[in-house]
Design a protein that fits this description.
The chain is built from 1 helix and 13 strands. It is mostly beta strands. It has a single domain, classed as Porin (Beta Barrel). An 11-stranded mixed barrel has the order 1-2-3-4-5-6-7-8-9-10-13. It has a two-stranded antiparallel sheet with strand order 11-12. The radius of gyration is 19 Å and the shape is globular. The relative contact order is 0.18.
Length: 264
C-alpha cells in the first residue's frame, strides 16, 4: 500500500506540472472561453482472435454546450501483437466550420490516415499506456488549396482505478494524459494536449468519462523585414464528455488489459 501511494503521488505531481505548463503557455495570448468536446465511440476489443477495431464520432463547440464548429468521423482496425502491444490502421474525415455561418459549409476538410502502436505497462494499480502515431493528412480548403502534411504524435496516458485493482465492470477511475504533436518539416513542436478526468465503467459494454482538456497550438518564430517575432502559443480549455460502447466478446469483453483510452 505504501508503494502504491508513492506511485500515485508521483503520477499526480507530474500531471500538476504538465497542467501548470499548459496554463503558462495559454497565458501568452488573451484568455479564451471554455469550449466543449463530445466523443462517442464503438469499440471491438481484441479477444482470443486478436483482431479488433473502432468507430468514432466527435463534435466540438466553441463555447460550453453551444457554438458547434468542428466534427470528426473516423474508424480503424487493430491487431494485438501480444498482451501489451497493439497495432492499429485507421483513417477519418474532419471538417472545420465558422460557427456563425454553418450554412456556408466547412472552411476546410481533411482526410487523414494513420499507423499506430500502443504499449500497455502496468505498475501495481496504475496502468500506463504509451501511444505512438504517424499521420498522413490531405486538406481541402475553401480557397481551393489542397496541401498535404505529415505529423507524428506521442501520448502518455495513466489510468488509476479507484475502487478495484483493475478497470472492469462497476469501476471508477482517474485518467491523465499529455500528448505532443510534431511536424517533421517544422515548426517541430506544433501542439500540446493535456487531459485530466474521471470515468466509470458501468458494465462490460458501457464506459463514461468527463474531464478537462487543454489544447495549445504553437506558431513558429519568424524574422521578416528586420523584425523578429518570437514563438507564440494559443490555448483553449474545454470540457470533455465521452461515451464508449464495447461490443462484447464473451469472457474477453472488458478485459483488464483493455484500457478505456480515447481513440482521438
Amino acid at each position: 500500500m505504501k508503494r502504491l501511494l508513492v506511485v500515485i503521488g508521483l503520477t499526480l505531481s507530474l500531471f500538476l506540472v504538465l497542467c501548470s505548463t499548459s496554463f503558462a503557455q495559454t497565458s501568452l495570448t488573451p484568455s479564451t472561453p471554455w469550449g466543449t468536446w463530445f466523443i462517442g465511440t464503438v469499440q471491438l476489443p481484441g479477444g482470443s482472435d486478436k483482431w479488433g477495431g473502432f468507430a468514432e464520432v466527435q463534435a466540438r463547440g466553441n463555447a460550453v454546450m453551444q457554438q458547434f464548429f468542428y466534427r470528426e468521423l473516423k474508424g480503424g482496425i487493430s491487431y494485438d501483437l501480444s498482451q501489451h502491444f497493439t497495432f492499429t490502421l485507421a483513417g477519418g474525415h474532419y471538417a472545420t466550420y465558422d460557427f456563425r455561418e454553418l450554412s456556408d459549409g466547412p472552411l476546410n476538410t481533411e482526410k487523414r490516415f494513420w499507423q499506430q502502436l500502443v504499449i500497455n505497462q502496468h505498475l501495481s494499480r496504475i496502468k500506463f499506456e504509451q501511444r505512438y502515431r504517424i499521420e498522413q493528412r490531405w486538406f481541402n480548403n475553401r480557397d481551393g488549396s489542397t496541401p498535404f502534411r505529415n505529423r507524428i504524435r506521442y501520448r502518455l496516458n495513466a489510468f488509476i482505478p479507484l475502487n478495484k485493482p483493475t478497470i472492469t465492470a462497476k469501476t471508477a477511475f482517474l485518467s491523465l494524459f499529455d500528448e505532443i504533436f510534431i511536424n517533421p518539416k517544422g515548426p517541430t513542436f506544433e501542439r500540446n494536449r493535456v487531459y485530466g478526468g474521471v470515468g466509470y465503467q458501468v458494465d462490460k459494454h458501457w464506459i463514461v468519462q468527463m474531464g478537462w482538456v487543454n489544447q495549445t497550438n504553437y506558431s513558429p518564430a519568424s524574422f521578416e523585414k528586420g523584425i523578429f517575432t518570437p514563438q507564440s502559443a494559443t490555448g483553449k480549455n474545454n470540457i470533455l464528455l465521452s461515451l464508449t460502447y464495447r461490443i462484447g466478446q464473451g469472457k474477453n469483453a472488458g478485459s483488464s488489459n483493455k484500457l478505456p483510452s480515447q481513440a482521438d
